[in-house]
Amino acid sequence: MNVRETEVVELAQLKPQFTSNPKEITPITACRFDPRFCYSIRRPANVTPDTPVLVVIHGNMRSLERTRDAFTDFTRWNDCIVIAPLFPVGVLGDDNKDGFKFLLEGEIRYDLVLLAIVEEVTTRLGLTATQFGLFGFAGGAQFTNRFMLLHASRLWAASIAAPGSVTLLDFEKTWWLGVADLEARFGTTVNLDALRSLPIQLLVGTADVDPGTDETSLSWVPNGRDAGETAYARLQSLSESLVEQDISPEFCLVPRKGHELLDLVDSAKYFFRRSLEKVRTTHASPTQDHLQNREDFDDQF
Fold first, then answer.
1. CA atoms lying within 13 Å on the CB side of residue 123
2. What secondary structure, in 3-state letters, does the chain show?
């Protein structure tokens, strides 16, 4: 036996630390609710009805695959499905790069688009989950901040990483600086009880000097930078507004790191792992409907 044959034998004897799945990643798929938007998912090898869901929202560059794949190890080791939506620039033909960050753009309600995507995935996979975790970086952090204020009861945890602007839990300021006119704009009110029970992470690198949203944005409103000139200052303002309502977010600073997804994501994954341990519950074994949905999903992709 030569050296190369020996190497092949040794490699063949290696055992994987987790079960692999050739369909671990789906193609980028149009949302049935609104095909202008799409998503891709990562899933663990074994999906059961109680498999939890984590949604990860890209930043301004719309790096769907990079954001999704940053959670590859989290998917595998925590048996969690990761959904990565894509919200393109200029959906209404006006080159607006910021619409999704503020949930509302023309007739588009981005929060409802996301809820439709989550429902589509959970239905296809036969999941029982009614809540999901939500992570956002930069522009995605703005989305996460605002979605959390509207739909706290739908989340089991939220991580807001390096936002370019924030919406404070301020009942005196109107949208998007605060939430005074939330019901008029979105037909809902802030659920303070749900926010108080929601694990919230505010995450930023200590070297982050990204300027954030400014007057060039099509979504700009006067006094839009009052919350702070840096992501750190903006998260401080957000934290203070939450604490005033007896909400206790975790403030996580990553030393010597700037405005970069991969420098922050490990801290987010640690936060979600701790949160997930608290929300896992025991469910019944897979039903026939669940198995059929899984087969249909595998056949499609």
1. 8
2. CCHHHHHHHHHHCCCCCCCCCCCCECCCEECCCCCCCEEEEECCCCCCCCCCEEEEECCCCCCHHHHHHCCHHHHHHHCCEEEEEECCCCCCCCCCCCHHHHCEECCEEHHHHHHHHHHHHHHHHCCCCCCEEEEEECHHHHHHHHHHHHHHHHEEEEEEECCCCCCCCCCCCCCCCCCCCHHHHHCCCCCHHHHHHCCEEEEEECCCCCCCCCCCCCCCCCCCCCCCCCHHHHHHHHHHHHHCCCCCCEEEEECCCCCCHHHHHHHHHHHHHHHHHHHCCCCCCCCHHHHHHHHHHHHHC
Return the closest-CA partner of residue 42 out of 59, 63, 28, 30: 28
User: Does residue 259 surpass a pLDDT of 80?
Assistant: yes
User: Dihedral (C-alpha) 218, 220, 225, 230: value to the nearest 10 degrees?
Assistant: -30
Place of tokens 């190890």: 73
The rounded distance, in Å, linking the Cα atoms of 159 and 272 is 8
The values of phi and psi at residue 120, to 5°, are: -60, -45
List beta partners, residue 40. 84
* pLDDT tens profile 9-26: 454 455 555 555 657 999
Token couple for 171: 């009942």
Tell me how crowded residue 94 is: count the other CB atoms within 10 A of its CB.
Answer: 12
- Summarised one tens digit per residue, pLDDT across range 206-218 is 999 999 999 999 9
Query: Rounded to 5 degrees, what angle do the CA atoms 213, 218, 224 make?
Result: 40
Residue 22 CA to residue 194 CA, distance in Å, equals 38
Cα 179 to the chain's mean position, in Å? 21
Q: For residues 248-271, give the mean pLDDT.
A: 97
For residue 49, the tally of other CB atoms under 10 A from its CB is 19
32 near 120, Cβ under 8 Å?
A: yes
Tokens 């991969």 sit on residue? 262
Amino acid at 79: D
From the list 130, 132, 131, 128, the residue with the least C-alpha distance to 290 is 128
